[in-house]
Write a structure and sequence with these properties.
The protein is of the alpha/beta class. A seven-stranded mixed beta sheet has the order 4-10-9-8-7-5-6, with helices on both faces. α8 links the parallel β7 and β8. α5 crosses α10, α7 packs parallel to α8 and α12 crosses α15. Bound molecules: pyridoxal-5'-phosphate. Pyridoxal-5'-phosphate binds next to α5. Its EC number is 2.1.2.1.
């Protein structure tokens, strides 16, 4: 049963309520390993569904375009102050609707159409909004892209520096969506300083690890930090932009009125709740456990013959090339989903296959760590993955069904926030 319960929705719109309840059960019964996903707390769920959704608040605290902000102003200010103190930044904007609009605000703040922006190439692990061709950021600006080293699977800062010197980008993005290794923020900062670029650290994936002290912080190195709030940070779907005082006004103007209208106040409230949770000692332990689980899973997968990009992981994320297993990423991801193990197919660096049918899978340990799984469970997870992939090659649906049952049995012992067994 969904928690908080949804009796009114069930009475008024049973068709939708049935789908929501089924999704809660699905999230409970599956080993959720999509690297960008998590389970938020019930307090975050409650804040997300409050009457704050009824209110329009264009502008910022003390400077709004509508009346009735007596309580919205302190709510948004609470979120901002918590972000500032958690990450140790001078300024935070908590209004971006999500990670992609947050990054777009950075373009609006610092670039003119046609200006050069440097980011990691999408198939190497970067994000669409770091200048990929199908994105507005790649169409309206002049993107130049760095890769990872073919042998090490890691970013080669000498190559980044050479490219930056040659192309003189105005903005450099570091961070990505499929980067299993620590981002060298001081290294990127040195390059950005040399070429006079604004350094943007996009910490969408690793924000929770940074908050919990399990990944180095970009603060003091990056001029601007963008992040989603719903990945390892374990908040509602949303985003934040954090900056030095010098860039505060440019970023605020870019978010509103540059790109957005009214902020989503219910989301702002839920972000405030998540930031309070992320400032606890318990969250620090959680962040370290995510990394310990990923390391244990990477070791167990390697033992089972999986090829990991860069040979392992420093964070929550694992990128595996399945070529050696004789299966492509997509059929593997689909079979794993049927086996109760949810992850996504993904390109690997220098992939010889097509983006919609690539060689790899990407997985992460943030959500399963929220459920309470630890290192001791990771050999079993790797064994299931190995068995399911092998079964897929033989069309052995009986084995895949059996694994789904075993996954469900294991997870029955690990409560899910947002769900209670009926
Ligand atoms: C997830 C992600 C984003 C975009 O977030 P959305 O909320 O999906 O728009 C941006 N940058 C990086 C590095 C991400 O991982």
């Amino acid at each position: 049963m969904h928690v908080p319960p949804i009796p009114h929705l069930t009475a008024e719109d049973p068709e939708l309520a049935t789908l929501v309840e089924a999704e809660a059960t699905r999230q409970h019964d599956k080993l959720r390993m999509i690297a960008s996903e998590n389970y938020v707390s019930e307090a975050v769920l409650e804040a997300s569904s409050t009457v704050l959704t009824n209110k329009y608040s264009e502008g910022y605290a003390g400077k709004r375009y509508y009346e009735g902000q007596q309580l919205i102003d302190p709510i948004e200010t609470l979120a901002i102050e918590r972000a500032k103190s958690l990450f140790g930044v001078e300024h935070a904007n908590v209004q971006p609707y999500s990670g992609s609009p947050a990054n777009l605000a950075v373009y609006l703040a610092f670039l003119q159409p046609g200006d050069t922006v440097m980011g990691m190439s999408l198939p190497m692990g970067g994000h669409l909004t770091h200048g990929w061709s199908v994105s507005a950021t790649g169409k309206w600006f002049n993107p130049v892209r760095y890769a990872v080293n073919r042998e090490s699977g890691r970013i080669d800062l000498d190559e980044v520096r050479d490219l930056a010197r040659a192309e003189r980008p105005k903005v450099i993005f570091c961070g990505g969506t499929a980067v299993p290794r620590t981002i060298d923020f001081p290294g990127f900062a040195e390059i950005a300083r040399e070429v006079g670029a604004v350094l943007v650290a996009d910490i969408a994936h690793i924000a929770g690890l940074i908050a919990g002290g399990a990944h180095p912080s970009p603060v003091g190195h990056a001029d601007v930090i963008t992040t989603t709030t719903h990945k390892t940070l374990r908040g509602p779907r949303g985003a934040m932009i954090m900056t030095t005082a010098a860039h505060a006004s440019a970023i605020d103007k870019a978010v509103f009125p540059g790109l957005q209208g009214g902020p989503h106040n219910h989301t702002t409230a839920a972000i405030a709740v998540a930031l309070r949770e992320a400032s606890t000692e318990e969250f620090g332990r959680y962040a370290h456990q995510i990394v310990a689980n990923a390391a244990a899973l990477a070791a167990a997968m390697t033992e089972r013959g999986f090829t990991l990009i860069s040979g392992g992981t420093d964070n929550h994320l694992i990128l595996a090339d399945l070529t050696g297993k004789g299966i492509a990423g997509k059929p593997a991801a689909q079979a794993l989903d049927r086996a109760g193990i949810e992850l996504n197919y993904n390109t690997v660096p220098y992939d010889v296959r097509k983006p919609f049918d690539p060689s790899g899978i990407r997985l992460g340990t943030a959500a399963l760590t929220t459920r309470g799984l630890t290192e001791q469970h990771m050999p079993q997870v790797a064994a299931w993955m190995d068995e399911a992939v092998t079964a897929a090659l033989k069309d052995d649906e009986a084995t895949i069904d059996r694994i789904a049952g075993e996954v469900q049995d294991l997870l029955a012992g690990f409560p899910m926030p947002g769900y209670r067994a009926a």
